[in-house]
Amino acid sequence: MVSDRDRAIFEAGIKLGALYHQWVGTPISRKSAVTVESAIEQAVILQPFVEEITVHLDRDKMVENSFGYSELSGLMLDVEIVTRVRFTYCRARLLPKDGYPLMQIVECYAITKNSRHR
Amino acid sequence: MVSDRDRAIFEAGIKLGALYHQWVGTPISRKSAVTVESAIEQAVILQPFVEEITVHLDRDKMVENSFGYSELSGLMLDVEIVTRVRFTYCRARLLPKDGYPLMQIVECYAITKNSRHR
Amino acid sequence: MVSDRDRAIFEAGIKLGALYHQWVGTPISRKSAVTVESAIEQAVILQPFVEEITVHLDRDKMVENSFGYSELSGLMLDVEIVTRVRFTYCRARLLPKDGYPLMQIVECYAITKNSRHR
Amino acid sequence: MVSDRDRAIFEAGIKLGALYHQWVGTPISRKSAVTVESAIEQAVILQPFVEEITVHLDRDKMVENSFGYSELSGLMLDVEIVTRVRFTYCRARLLPKDGYPLMQIVECYAITKNSRHR
After folding, report:
1. Which residues contact A117 (CB under 8 A, 6 or more apart)?
2. Would you tell me the crossing angle of helices A4-23 and A33-45 to the nearest 10 degrees?
3. Distance linking the first and last C-alpha atoms of chain C
4. End-to-end CA distance of chain D
5. What interhelical angle do C4-23 and C33-45 show, nearest 10?
6. Which of A31, B33, D44, D101 could form a disulfide linkage to D53, CB 3.0–4.6 angstroms apart?
């Protein structure tokens, strides 16, 4: 059987994988970064099961090429997402680790029906 | 705590989400479909935790535009993936349902250490 | 020989083709459209030879799927770009025509060195 | 006025820009490279005005990450494309130069109606 926890985790994975491949390659600079962060957040939050999303792009990794700009790379992305399926939440993260853009489950938790309406 | 099952599910989600946004938009035709299917499979199988991947593109949805080709859309994709974390497997699917490219967990199962080495 | 006009035209084509395949597939809604338009403009203007870029997304084409959002499609895009190589400009457009996202050169023109510094 | 030469150049730009942003980020290895090259070629050749396309991926740049694979980067791409509008051809190239994936017009030429049917 597939539990709510399973589905919340699955959805967190989907959203992080999708985000990565949708946005990598976009021309980016320190000046445009805040708008791109906001556009990514607004695109992700539209999708089903997403409760929260924060995107931070590492300005220090925006090394300019010979034409004065960078491209968004996976290692620039610091993303935290919270998905929810009924009363179960999953918090997951995309963050560089040892030169790899690692996606990890941070925690999952269920709230009781009551606690939610208190 | 994050279990092997959790991680296998998370990885299946990542791969399906990534695949979707990497490949949607590619010019496609009935003739090129088999090569694109193979390229997607070969790209996905490279990634960690992927045991199996099969990609089928729905030729019937490849309606030609006025220039004689289509673009790969999410609704063309029929994908089945198996991920594994240690002894736990997750089988997931991307398949159109009611006009939406739905991703779903099909089943998860663990094998015993022994059965694996028999 | 390759003229400035040739190069301005070539760069306009590059930018429109790139923009199209970078952004198609992004989850979008009427509410997030203005941020995504701005993110696209800010990404394109970073690139060499781009003088002006305006992006308008057709809200009427944002038909919600069963989960309440759309994906950015090529037919939503109305883009006008001006590229420049030295004293020669190229204005080009991406606009739906007969159900196809058509890219076209609008006009090219050169300014004299003098007129530029007056 | 927009000449056939202008349009052939514009189309070459569109195709190179599109290709770049469609495929960058795809997981890749030396083993899968030949299939991905073929998939890119078959996708591009479908599009209007494309006469020839050859894609070569630089295996030497496929440095494996900690999980044993690479991602297709712009600097791996060596692409030559020929577009045609009526009797005018444009040959263009995407090739790394000084660490930047440079797109350039190689040559344009017109053939006479007669020479074509000889």
Report:
1. none
2. 140
3. 30
4. 30
5. 140
6. D44
Interaxial angle between packed helices B4-23 and B33-45, expressed in degrees from 0 to 180 and rounded to the nearest 10: 140
Q: Which two tokens stand for residue B103?
A: 């991703």
> What is the C-alpha separation between B17 and A17, in angstroms, rounded?
5
A10 and B6 in contact by Cβ < 8 A? Answer: no
Question: Which stretches of chain D are DSSP H helices?
Answer: 4-23, 33-45, 113-117
DSSP conformational letter for B49? T
ipTM of this model?
Answer: 0.93
- Res. D114: pLDDT tops 90: no
Give the closest-approach CA distance of B49 to chain A in angstroms: 13
Chain C residues touching B99 at Cβ < 8 A: 65-66
Chains in contact with C, where contact means 3 or more Cβ–Cβ distances below 8 Å, are: A, B, D
Q: Please tell me whether the overall predicted TM-score, pTM, comes out greater than 0.90 for this model.
A: yes
Question: Which residues are paired to D50 by β-bridges?
Answer: D83
pLDDT level of residue A68 (50, 70, 90 thresholds)? confident
Q: How many residues would you count in chain B?
A: 118
Instruction: Give kind and range of the element (H or E) at residue D56.
Output: strand D50-57
